[in-house]
Amino acid sequence: MKKLLNKKTIIFVTILSIIIIAISFILLNEKKEKTKVVYKHVENEVKKLYPNSYFKNKFPLQYNTYMQTELEAKTKFNGSVKETKFSVNKEPYLPILFNGYGFALDYNEDRGHVYAIEDVTKTLRVNDKSIGACLTCKSTAVPNLIEAMGDRYYNSSFKEDILPKAESLKHESIGCSDCHDPETMDLKVTRPHFVQAMGNKGIDVTKAPPAEMKNYVCGQCHVEYYFRSVQKRVTLPLRIGYTAAAGFGYYYAFSFMNEGDFKNTVSGTPILKAQHPDFETYMTGKHRERGANCVDCHMAKHTSPEGKEFRSHTMTSPLRDLDGTCLTCHKESTKEQVTKAIYDIQERHMKKLHAAQEISVRTHYYINKMITVGADSGEIAAVQSQVHYAQWYWDFVAAENSTGFHDPEGALANLEKSILSSKKALEIATTALQAKNVDINELELKIKERMKAVVDEPDSTKKKDHATNDYFPPMVEQ
Ligand code: HEC
Ligand code: HEC
Ligand code: HEC
Ligand code: HEC
Description:
Blueprint: H1 2-37, H2 53-56, H3 60-67, H4 94-97, H5 116-122, H6 142-149, H7 152-155, H8 158-168, H9 192-200, H10 210-219, E1 226-228, E2 233-235, H11 244-253, E3 262-263, E4 270-271, H12 278-284, H13 286-289, H14 294-298, E5 301-303, E6 309-311, H15 335-372, H16 377-398, H17 408-435, H18 440-456
Antiparallel strand pairs: 1-2, 3-4, 5-6
Helix pairs in contact: 15-16, 15-17, 15-18, 16-17
This protein binds heme C (4 copies).
One heme C is lined by residues 286-287, 290-292, 296-297, 318, 325-326, 328-330, 338, 341-342.
């Protein structure tokens, strides 16, 4: 009996110990697992911002004119009004040309600096997948966030992480501290991507002469960029030069962008999207050789009632203040003459841009037909390569903001290149399609129908939906 009890006790104790060991093993392991998963990012403290109000009493002239960037006014082709680029007198076929990309959904003209944050948060191009990099040229919080977070700033969630952080710092839209050292008021480039890109060209922006700083502070934002590889760091393709050709060359030699920013839905062609190369087109334009800089044309010279000279901080179209801009150099000209000089350049420019975009639209549809009738894949690739090239050249011109004025000759030359390349594409495609017995006249009629349907759609966000149909099925899954 004693023996039996003993045996029972031993079995009981053994089972109990096994259970205890098993439970502690599970618990311990779980703890281990948790310390592995919970990874705390060490982040430096974000420095406080200098709000615009800090400068208000010290520099009322600049502060008050800065606040006036909220006034909306139109010029013939531009101005400071939020409006879609898709209207007939602007670029009505962009919803076809950018089909498959956010720029086919929502693409507006620029307006005053005070609106930058509102406009970036409201554009339909920004969604739950957008990243912090999108805020880079909008908010006074950005230099401090980059300093505190390092490269992690760029690919963090725009809506979940970066915007709330910037809001908690009470950020403002392109404020004094974006261009000035807040203590000395010297001009300062605050965005690391510009310092680095110019550094790659052997130009030390931190030691630039004051005259050049008047271009650099603007150039840091008004410039073509891309998000580099997985880190999504904002990067400028300036290394080879400032022309459209140099940008194109850069993307092949130095980036991971050979597949483009997106594939056009109509033709499956990989496309590189250009973004506002105002700095580049200024750099290659004649007025740079003539000694003009961004400030001369976009920050009008004013005199205060007390006789103090200063620069209007209402950075806007020179047409809104010709006395303080163009006429400070063209002293012999009248306002009417200068206005006409600008409009002559812009009208000639728009005509050529429309020609380049319309032929580009046709090439996308020709490729669509080549694919549906089973044309030779080598020929399809050859046409796509021409279209890829042609679209970069007109887009580089269309995406800059002066409607050709910054470099009128350069812009026309780029459009000419684009049209030539599109013509080449049509030539190869037509031969291939005729070999497959495609009726080219009918094809052209069907293309006109799509173009008209896009133009006729009153809702700008739905225009893109008319680019494809049963005759021209989408070539990229949406
Ligand atoms: C010689 C004069 C001149 C210089 C220098 C110049 N621009 Fe312009 N810019 C113009 C004109 C003219 C327009 C067209 C204005 C219009 O159509 O209302 C324009 C338009 C713009 C616009 C669009 C304005 C709007 O109303 O939407 C931006 C942005 C711009 N320029 C930025 C720059 C930047 C940045 C620089 C320097 C890198 C620069 N510009 C240098 C004359 C100049
Ligand atoms: C987008 C860039 C930018 C922003 C934002 C900006 N400035 Fe300026 N600021 C300039 C440039 C460029 C000059 C011209 C420097 C020159 O001519 O040497 C200038 C000149 C000045 C000057 C020198 C006097 C003058 O008028 O030429 C003061 C003072 C000044 N800014 C204050 C301010 C204040 C205050 C704010 C904010 C309310 C502000 N700036 C916002 C770019 C900027
Ligand atoms: C921190 C980035 C940043 C800097 C620096 C900057 N800009 Fe801008 N600029 C923008 C953005 C973003 C917009 C468009 C805002 C919108 O549409 O909501 C803009 C719009 C403009 C416009 C169009 C305004 C209008 O009335 O249509 C002009 C002109 C302009 N900037 C000129 C300049 C000049 C000149 C400088 C340098 C003195 C400069 N910008 C510096 C980001 C910047
Ligand atoms: C910093 C001085 C300066 C400013 C500011 C300036 N220009 Fe000029 N511009 C020149 C010089 C210098 C020339 C070459 C000499 C000439 O033809 O008078 C020139 C030439 C021109 C020409 C004739 C040559 C050509 O290439 O077509 C036009 C048109 C012109 N400018 C328009 C403008 C307009 C419009 C503005 C304002 C948006 C402007 N300029 C601002 C200095 C300036």
